[in-house]
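Our working data are protein records whose layout never changes between entries. The record below serves as our worked example for the rest of this section:
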Amino acid sequence: MEKQYIFSFVILNYITTKDTIECIKSIKNNCKEYKFNIIVVDNASPNNSGYELKHLFEEDTDVKVIINEKNIGFARGNNVGYQYAKEKYKPDFIILCNSDTEILNDNFCIDIIEKYKQTNFALMGPKEKLADGGFYILTEKARSKIALKLSISYYNKIIQNKSLTFSRILLKANSVIERKKLDVEKEYTNICLHGAFLIFSKQYIDLFNGLNEATFLYGEEEFLYWRLKMNNLLSIYYPKIEILHKRNHSTKASIIDDKERKIKQAKWHLDSAKKLLRALNGDINI
């Protein structure tokens, strides 16, 4: 008898009620022939978004809504749902997806299963179609120790500058050293996958309880890249799986003022870069 694979989806919600509902609908529409469950983790949305979702889905046995008492950040927030899924459902795959993402292909589950059978991957990332019709730009790898040191100096400049003229500096801080852009239509292994939509298999689930919790926001995928690399675990960018990513809806919705948003982002980036550098130096766990 063919094994029945179980898919657990974790959606981190913050303010974006409408996006989360659309994300849930896309999962239901594209996974209806498979065993799946959805865990929504609300990160203490100040607009009562979590309670709205809890009320809306209280009779839906496929959806569980968990409301955090405070905003504990991206990694910790996702891990609440990840660990709940791991303990309650014993899934074969856990998918961490931003609330502003939607699955676009109806072969989503079978494509993952078939690729897992072929490769035993630990982590898979999809092709990301953006709201403007373009695609998320892939790059080869995470930042090195040298690049992180340069990033930290750039982030400090942004915070000290406190103006709206630092978009170019922010771009430099994020990239620092020119990283090779990859073809989104091609398959790649062991590259730094984008954190908006991450598909974890049993190869990863059995070893770890989610993402590294050192950061509040940003840098999670780089921590993940180095964790996989150091543990000889396979990651795959697989363009046959395609999602829509509307990008930054919760960040933009929660911080209206553009100047304030950019300075806060720079501070979060700075904190994450410092912690990743410490991890690569062996001072904290990767």
Summary: The CA atoms of residues 6 and 91 lie 5 Å apart. The mean pLDDT is 91. The first strand starts at residue 6 and ends at 13.
